[in-house]
Amino acid sequence: MDLYKKSLLLTGCLFILFSQSQAQTSAIRNNYQTETGIPHLNIERSMIYSPEKEWLYNHHPSIIHFKDQFIAIWSNGLIDEDSPGQRVVYATSKDFIHWSVPAVLASPGKVNDTLTVLTAAGLYQYKGTLVAYYGEYTKHRLNTHLWAKTTTDGIHWSAPGDMHVPLIPNHGPESTKSGRLIISGNFLFPYTDDPHGISGWKLSSFYPDSLYKQDNSAAFYAPAAKLGLPPLCEGSFFQTDDNILHMLLRVTGKGWNGRLWLTESKDNGTSWSRPVEAPFSDNDSKFHFGRLPDKRFYYVGIPDTLHHYDRNPLVISLSTNGKAFDKSYIIANELYHLKKEGLWKGGQYGYPHTMIYNGYLYVIVSRQKEAIETIRFKISQLK
């Protein structure tokens, strides 16, 4: 059999295997329609950073509480989204209200005299060490790498370490019940059993590995098209008591129709099912799933479908069983007015990331990809 026929046979086998792993329907759903009649939470809010005349693009934020202070990390660009010269910065606060001037965590390098692009990729802590992750690629979204720096005091940082995965993460590492760490990407979900989160990363995806070389903000279109799927990206997962991992995925571009998609893993993130559309509304934005201390599951995002890409209002939806997210609250819907237009800048409550600390749920967001704000509210309000 010649190489061409072998290639066809292999591709056909992969497609059959991939199709057989597809779930028939998604049981995970929400019931959000409009914000009319949905209760508003009492919140506190703090503007971490709002630019004046320079470094006007700010996005991809994450927040953590580490050694008696809050630390926020985000992507910081000159004017436009994901353009050469974009760096990663962080700010700290003792009280949530007063934040330090942003400090540079990582600066881009140069390839052929052009600055690379850095993207903030989340935070993780273990036994007194904080790890900050960031992705890097060249101007045309090639040569993708994931890097990490560590600190024991939130001030002095290590040299960057190569995580050896070609990925720009959506969220930083999150733990399953076994202690395994999983990074939520677009279609790559690397995992490691190293509790420090800095070594042993192995690639995992719902795509055959023959369909991709890297995972970044441009790389998810081609493999989706080859397998007849919409452009799937920016996942977030949660684990139910039956140990199944449920990774919800955003659909963007021409494939957007107002719903998330779902892929699942029954082997602790080693493999994932073919994604299916979920009856879970979405505005075309990043979102974050988690679990409350009372064991209810939560989603924080923008489920509105009437005003595509407005990313407003910011909502938390709750589920007792991890299937029906049927109780919602408005976290915030106030408007932020853009100071300076730039490429793809927009969206009132962009890319939320959440954290639970000391009886509060914290949400950090970008405001029209220009300012970085954090919001908190007492979990006791969630009846």
Question: What does this 3D model show about the protein?
Answer:
With 383 residues, the protein is mainly beta. It has a single domain, classed as Neuraminidase (6 Propeller), CATH 2.120.10. The protein contains two helices and 27 strands. The longest helix is centred in the N-terminal third of the chain and has 18 residues.
Distance between the terminal alpha carbons, to the nearest Å? 65 Å
What is the chains' assembly state? single chain
Count the helices. How many?
2
Strand content: 35-45%
Number of spatially distinct domains: 1
The CATH architecture name reads 6 Propeller
Main sheet strand line-up: 2-27-26-25
CATH class: Mainly Beta
Largest sheet entry: 4 strands, antiparallel
What class do helices, strands and sheet pairing give? mainly beta
Question: Which fold name is given in CATH as the topology?
Answer: Neuraminidase
Low-confidence stretches: 1-21
The outline comes out as globular
- Level of helix content? under 10%
Number of strands: 27
Q: What order do the helices and strands follow?
A: HEEEEEEEEEEEEEEEHEEEEEEEEEEEE
Our Rg estimate from Cα atoms comes to 20 Å
